[in-house]
Amino acid sequence: MVSETKNNPLLLEEENCCANGTDRKSHHSDKVKNNLVTRLNRIEGQIRGIKGLIEKDTYCDDVITQISATQSALNSVAKILLEGHLKGCVADRLQEGDTEVLDEVLITIQKLMKK
Q: Model confidence over 15-24: pLDDT tens digits?
């Protein structure tokens, strides 16, 4: 992920990811948000394409290849979000003395690794 940050200026412009306390919202810069939405739109198109391949009885291996590419694209979105979360929200909360955020992050990473 570190190399992705150096190559992705959008991550460097990330604002604080989450607010503190009970107002749990992400606060991404417009550039980061647009990048994520663009990626998700592309993924949405990939999903529609996979559906079309299945409807056309496309060879299973070809469909699986497209599913794999889509999963990889989703993982890229998750990496961007996780990196911003760690560098913004988690770092801020740790500086405030909130160590409970570490348990939250570990649970999140476990969820990502199941996939």
A: 455 554 556 7
